[in-house]
Specification:
2 domains, 221 residues, Endonuclease Iii, domain 2
Length: 221
């Protein structure tokens, strides 16, 4: 199968399994979405979702967030990995939004990536899920799936993003990002993965599945 053919088969499977995938991170608006994605780096969505409701109940906008100290923010997110660094980033991000952007999230990738703690993946999520702009956020999980399914060579995340954008329709990118996340968690995990039990690894995968060659029939004497 060509990459385009694989992409069509993958999209059909994901549309069947996840026709309307919800955003897995708790949020109440665009600002809290950005903060939640920032916090999810090198952490599980579960740990973030346990920490953020109380924080966002107190501060769901930049003006309210800067009234908290980084130490106070950290007290809410202590269960999240790298909480000390992330709490400073959340506070500084809020300050910069107030000072440079009128308290609103900027609407360009470049400006978003300049914010503390906001990398390319976080900016892509904000662009797609908050502003509805075509973007394909690629994290380590999607990077893994793309390599397993033969859609990318797995060289790096940037190359994987480029390869995925080349084979999937632009209007599907935002939804596919969520669909692939759910599929990876439920059917194609990083550890203890059984390729023959995974529909997509079994049907479109490359190195993930190598069927044993048929044994030659014994010759009759």
């Amino acid at each position: 199968m060509t990459r385009i053919e694989k992409a069509r088969a993958i999209q059909a499977c994901l549309d069947r399994l996840y026709p309307d995938p919800p955003i897995p991170l708790y949020h109440t608006n665009g600002f809290t979405m950005c903060v939640a994605v920032l916090l999810s780096a090198q952490a599980t969505d579960k740990s973030v979702n346990l920490a953020t409701p109380a924080l966002f109940a107190l501060a769901d906008n930049p003006a309210a967030m800067v009234k908290l100290s980084p130490e106070k923010i950290q007290s809410f997110i202590s269960r999240v990995g790298l909480s000390k660094t992330k709490s400073r980033n959340v506070w500084n991000l809020s300050r910069i939004l107030l000072e440079k952007h009128g308290g609103r999230l900027p609407r360009t990738m470049g400006e978003l990536e300049e914010l503390p703690g906001v990398g390319h993946k976080t900016a892509s999520v904000v662009m797609s899920q908050v502003f509805g702009e075509p973007a394909f956020a690629v994290d380590t999980h999607i990077h893994r799936l793309a390599e397993r399914w033969g859609l990318s060579n797995g060289k790096n995340v940037a190359q994987t993003e480029k390869d995925l954008k080349a084979v999937f329709p632009k209007e599907k990118w935002s939804k596919l990002h969520l669909q692939m996340i759910y599929y990876g968690r439920e059917h194609c995990p990083a550890r203890n993965h059984h390729p023959l039990q995974c529909e997509l690894c079994r049907t479109v995968g490359t190195a993930a599945v190598r069927k044993p060659a048929a044994k030659p029939k014994a010759k009759r004497s």
